[in-house]
């Protein structure tokens, strides 16, 4: 790849995902502990021939910064621009942030995280050679064309292809396509290039290169990630399954708030400690550190350090998550139990799970929290203190 063939990637991530349930746009749904969009950008980051990445989203959406960019590892992302109501408006907004030195424009869907670097290279090569190229896969089923529910044509299956991204174009060609075809209805950029009469090269795509449109698509890709990570078997390609356990106990005293998983639980007494004495979060921290072989909470956040005086344990959990991510670890699940005679914690369990899941950037169903008593036995039974223990599994 010569310098004159500099490649800039435009990532379309302004969609609202109306075909998926819930209020979270699909690009921000969690996949293996990180948003879908982060995985897409991370894969583009790995393509050596891409010099920089421009994200086309809603720049006013704090999630773009706080949940995607904040995960790190995206040094090539140096531009963001708000998208329009239609895809062509969004891609055009990103195209305007490029310049003539960036000869090849690669366009990719923000919710297509499973393409290979080799596919991106093949599409770029084809665009360098012919000006325009797209990834596509041949139809495997018979295709029907219908109008008003009635079949009007059955095209030759061998001539039918399903378009994917990435798609790549010479910048000057793509600019002219946008200028010359302002009224053309297009769901992708290659349609605009076709409309001006320029041939578009088909590059054999990948079945795994699924665009997340429905909940089923997300589950399919989650299964792909699990297989790659070796979750179904220790030592399989992608990483090793590791397990750690954590335990913590603090004394109950008057004049302190009772904090569990960052939540203030109404109770006459609270837990005594250098930090907020959140036994549940502390046990989870130790379980994660143990699984990763990173020591324990006392070693990382000693009670002799004034910086941790009365600190929220969720902030400590944030630091632990960052350490895990830096090491390449991925959290699979956490199972924890709080051992307390009182108060009754069942009404707060769901909120605790949501709080920990949010700070660990994993799905809520990857965390299970239970509460139990000691039937009046021991220091817990005498309501002198509260204990918690946790088990965490990660892939490293």
Describe the 3D structure.
This protein is of the alpha/beta class and about 400 residues long. The protein contains twelve helices and 18 strands. The longest helix has 15 residues, at about 215-230. It is elongated, with a radius of gyration of 26 Å. The two termini are about 35 Å apart.
* CATH architectural arrangement of the largest domain: Alpha-Beta Complex
CATH uppermost class of the largest domain: Alpha Beta
Spans of at least 5 consecutive residues with low confidence: 231-238
Largest sheet: 7 strands, mixed
Fraction of residues in helix: 25-40%
Instruction: Label the overall shape.
Output: elongated
How many discrete domains?
A: 2
Write the element-wise H/E pattern from the N-terminal end onward. EEEHEHEHEHEEEEHHEHEEEEHHHEHEHE
CATH fold node name of the largest domain = Spore Coat Polysaccharide Biosynthesis Protein SpsA, Chain A
Number of strands: 18
Short structural description:
Helix content is 30%, strand content 27%.
Features:
elongated; 5-stranded mixed beta sheet; 30% helix; Spore Coat Polysaccharide Biosynthesis Protein SpsA, Chain A; 12 helices; 7-stranded mixed beta sheet; 60s Ribosomal Protein L30, Chain: A; alpha/beta
Secondary structure topology:
Layout: E1 7-12, E2 30-31, E3 34-35, H1 36-45, E4 50-57, H2 62-68, E5 77-82, H3 87-95, E6 104-109, H4 117-130, E7 132-138, E8 145-147, E9 150-153, E10 161-170, H5 171-180, H6 189-195, E11 201-204, H7 215-229, E12 241-254, E13 258-260, E14 263-265, E15 269-271, H8 279-292, H9 297-300, H10 313-326, E16 330-339, H11 349-360, E17 367-372, H12 378-381, E18 385-395
